[in-house]
Amino acid sequence: MALMTFGTHEARRAQVAAMRLVATAMETREFDGPQADLVRMFAGLVGCAGCHGFEESLDFSDLLGDSFPASVPDGAIELVAALVHDRDELSEAVNAGLLVAMFADEPDLDGLLAARSLAQGLGADDSLIDGVVAIASERAASAKADLFRRFLSERIAVESDTIREHMERGDLALITPDETVERYHQAMEAAPDGSLGAEMRRFYGDARFDMPGMPGVPLPVEFLGSHDVHHVLAGYDTTAQGEAYTAVFNAGNAEAGIGWMTVVLLQWHQGIRLGVFPEGHSHLDPEVMADAAYRGAQTTTDIYDAEWDWIALLAEPLDEARESLSIPAGGNVAAGESWNPTPTG
After folding, report:
1. Residue 101: helix, strand or coil by DSSP?
2. For the residues 92-116, what does the mean pLDDT come to?
3. Fewer Cβ atoms within 10 Å of its own Cβ: the N or the C terminal residue of the chain?
4. Which of these, 9, 11, 10, lies nearest to 91 by C-alpha position?
5. Are the C-beta atoms of residues 298 and 276 closer than 8 Å to each other?
6. What are the pLDDT digits (tens) for 48-59?
7. CA angle centred on 245, ends 23 and 118, rounded to 5°
8. CA atoms of 114 and 110, how far apart (whole Å)
9. 172 lies in the same domain as 33
10. Cβ-Cβ contacts under 8 Å for 214 (sequence gap 6 or more)
11. Residues 103 and 179 placed together within one structural domain of the fold
12. Which domain holds residue 27?
C-alpha cells in the first residue's frame, strides 16, 4: 500500500478497483456497509488533489457506484491487470484487497476468497492469503502457527526454522542477543527529557508493560521494541484499536508490513488467537484506518526494515525523530495524553 501516495494514477485506480471487488466478493453482494465505507475513504485519499498536488481530484466514481464497470470475475480481473505495470503495483493492488477482507468484524471467507481469486488472476503467488483463508475457513492451528512464524521471520530477518524451534520451546525472546538487550536498555535509561526514549518510558508506564528484554516478556527485542517505537512515532495508543491502526500504518509504510497487519486484525479485531497475547474484538473506524495507511505511505523511511537502527533514534527529540522520518502529523494520542486510555461508553 506504499504506492498509495507515490504510485501512478493507474496504480491508484487498480487499488480502488481491487478493494471494490473484495468488498463485494466479486460483485456477489451489495456494495455497502463498513467495508464499502473503507473503500470510499481510501478512494478519497488516493484521489485527493489537495493531498497530492494534482490539479484535479482523480475520479473513481465508476468504481464506487452500484455496479462494477466490467464483467466478473474474468473481465474485472482483466481491468485491474491492465492498470498494473510491474510486480510492485500488482502486489499493492492485492494487498489493498486483503485489507478490505480483513476489515470485516468477523472472518469474511467470501471476501478472502475474492482476494485470493484476484491475486491468482493477476499472477501473484500469495501464500499469505492462502494462510488467512485456511484460518478463516478451518481455524487450523497449523495455519495460525505458519502465519505467525512467517511474519516474525520476515520482520526480524531470522530463518523460519529458527523461529519454529523457539516457538516450540516457548522461548522466542531468547532470539535476541544479550548485547542487543543491554544496548537497548542503556539507551532507554540515558534518553534525555523530550526525547523519543523518554516518551517510550512514559509509554511503558501508561501501558503497564514490561520493557522488551525483561524476564517474562515473550517476544524478541528486535520485534517488540521496535514495534513499541512504531506506536509512539505514529501516535497510536495501546488499545486494540491502536494496535490495528499501528499495523495498518506499517502496511502503508512497507510491503512487508502486510503480514503484521494480518496478524493484528485476525487477533485483535476478529478475535482469532495467533500469537502470544490474548485475542479480542475491536470496532475500527474506516476513516482512521485509511488515514493510518496514508500516513504510513507518506513516511519515507521504511521503519519496518529489520536493518533500521531504531535504538539509535531513542536519544533524539521526539518531534525531530518524527520529522527525520517524514511521519505526518496524526494518530490518536496528543502530546501528554495517555498511551493507555480508559475505555469509555
Report:
1. helix
2. 95
3. C
4. 11
5. no
6. 877 766 678 899
7. 30
8. 6
9. no
10. none
11. no
12. 3-138
For residue 292, what are the contacts with CB-CB under 8 A and spacing of at least 6? 234, 236, 245, 246, 248, 249, 252, 330
* Number of CB atoms found within 10 A of residue 95's CB: 28
Please state, in angstroms and rounded to a whole number, the distance separating the CA atoms of residues 264 and 251: 11
The total number of structural domains that make up the chain: 2
pLDDT at 193: 98
Report how far residue 102's alpha carbon sits from residue 203's, in angstroms, rounded to the nearest whole number.
Answer: 28
Spatial distance between the Cα atoms of 52 and 50, rounded to a whole number of angstroms: 6
Query: How many other CB atoms sit within 10 Å of the CB of residue 283?
Result: 10
What would the pLDDT profile of 132-177 be if each residue is shown by its tens digit?
A: 999 998 767 889 999 999 999 999 999 999 999 999 999 999 999 9
Arithmetic mean of pLDDT, 204-228: 96
Cα–Cα distance for residue pair 37/43, rounded to 1 Å:
10
Estimate to the nearest angstrom the gap between the alpha carbon of 103 and the chain centroid. 11
**pLDDT band at residue 5 under the 50/70/90 scheme:** low
| 14 and 122 belong to one structural domain | yes
3-state DSSP call for residue 291?
helix
Is residue 286 in some structural domain? yes
Would you say 16 and 82 are in contact if contact means Cβ atoms under 8 Å apart?
no
Residue 143 lies in a domain: no
Is residue 120 domain-resident? yes
Whether residue 161 sits in one domain with residue 221: yes
Residues 209 and 278 in one domain: yes
Q: Locate 34 and state its grid cell.
A: 463498513
Q: What is the C-alpha separation between 146 and 55, in angstroms, rounded? A: 46
| Residue 164 and residue 296 in one domain | yes
Q: Assess whether 163 and 266 both reside in one domain.
A: yes
Residue 215 — φ and ψ, nearest 5°?
Answer: -55, 135
Tell the residue number behind the cell numbers 489493498, with chain if given: 96
Q: Cell 470485516 belongs to which residue?
A: 104
Q: Is the model's pTM score more than 0.70? A: yes
Asked whether residue 235 carries a pLDDT value surpassing 80, the answer given is yes
Alpha-carbon distance 241 to 281, whole Å? Answer: 9
